[in-house]
Amino acid sequence: MDSIIRYIGPNKRAKLIDSHPAELIAAKAKLFECKITDEELSTRLDEEDPLGHFREKFHIPKMRDLPFTDPELISPDDDAVYLCGNSLGLQPKTTRMFVEKELNKWSKWGVHGHEHVMHEDGDLPWAHCDEALYALSSTIVGANSSEIGIMNSLSVNIHFLLYIIESQLNHRGYNTSEAMICIKPREGETMLHTKDILDRINEEGDSVAIIMFSGVQYYTGQLFDMESITKAGQKKGCIVAFDLAHAVGNVPLHLHDWGVDFASWCTYKYLNSGAGCIAGVFIHEKHHHAVKPTLTGWWGHEHATRFNMDNKMVSSPGPDGFRVSNPSGVLCACLHASLEVFSMTSMEAIREKSLLLTAYLELLLKRLLPYPPRANGDSCVRILTPSDPMQRGAQLSIWLSIPVQSVKVELEKRAVVCDERKPNVLRVSPVVLYNSFHDVYKFVHLLKDAMTVVKF
């Protein structure tokens, strides 16, 4: 597959300098002597995909096993069209092995599993099982291993890092309408302009303590310029933090180089660790000895004297000091299985394929689903996610002029898995490690079929 991006500059920011992904898709169609809308293009792109073999490392649900399917509309033995990795990633095939190793340790050793190993490759006692994930996670978020913590869940971590805004403001007696500044899109638009964000920071920054953004917006799929936001906020003396739930494992991140103060993420979306699995945090090394947790837990005590039980809290520096209780060996094993898959490639390679997948999805939607028009002549399908590939990740949010829940029901009958958000949006996410170009092709055609059934 031709290279379409180059990672240049000291912070390795992705710059599209060769060609737009959509132009490359069109060029491939011309080379293969087929139309962009032909099924042949999807199969030929899959044949050339250097990351295509990763699909075999995941359990892809079969159509026959999904709920709500209509037997007359599916081929039972075929793979389902799963485009919901932005909500829950699929299970790596090695997950069961990783988990069974921990269950085996528990069954044979009991409490000894906390501090001893089974003499197997990669085995760690439960007291340190999270630490095995620091280095693997650091390459995904662009950080040093010492800046990573694996603990709790996303929302719990956000509370402990003090940036679930409304809750923390209410807890401290502030009026949220006065103490919380929200940025909204311009009138009639759905996206935030980077200029508007930076201008607002410049206007309000002198009175702001913490700036918190998502890396990728969950509803629209917009990818924010985290580096520029960080620099603008810190120039005003603000702490800058990010919720990376929809960004981690999706787009390249360089948290350390960007100077981000802290961040947190869940691991069950693009990181494929399983529903409700253990989450991650980043705290920049510049804060490791200057910032202490407000709410402490015994597992945040330094390891050497943790069990002295002398009621003298000695916090570990950095993210380790924010740990509350001992991590689950089973949950860490689930995450470990997925991170091992990520370690076999790079976020740069993942991003390159992701740009092509979403460009292909956008092209097919625009060519095959501009119909039937509404009474005023407008299309019944509109993509809310930015068309600029550098302002989006793997997700495209598709607004429909017909009831989205009814369309989703018809998609489920056809073994298509995506999700919907009110008032009328389908969120579709072709995930690089297990989705194919043919998945995208099938989805658009099945969406077209579903929409023809739903009454306007």
UniProtKB/TrEMBL annotation:
It is an enzyme of class 3 (hydrolase). Keywords: Cytoplasm, Hydrolase, Pyridine nucleotide biosynthesis, Pyridoxal phosphate. Pyridoxal 5'-phosphate binds at residues 154-155, 214, 243, 246, 268, 298, 326. The keyword Cytoplasm applies. Pfam families: KYNU_C. Belongs to the kynureninase family. This is Kynureninase. The lineage of its organism: Eukaryota, Metazoa, Ecdysozoa, Scalidophora, Priapulida. The gene is LOC106805750.
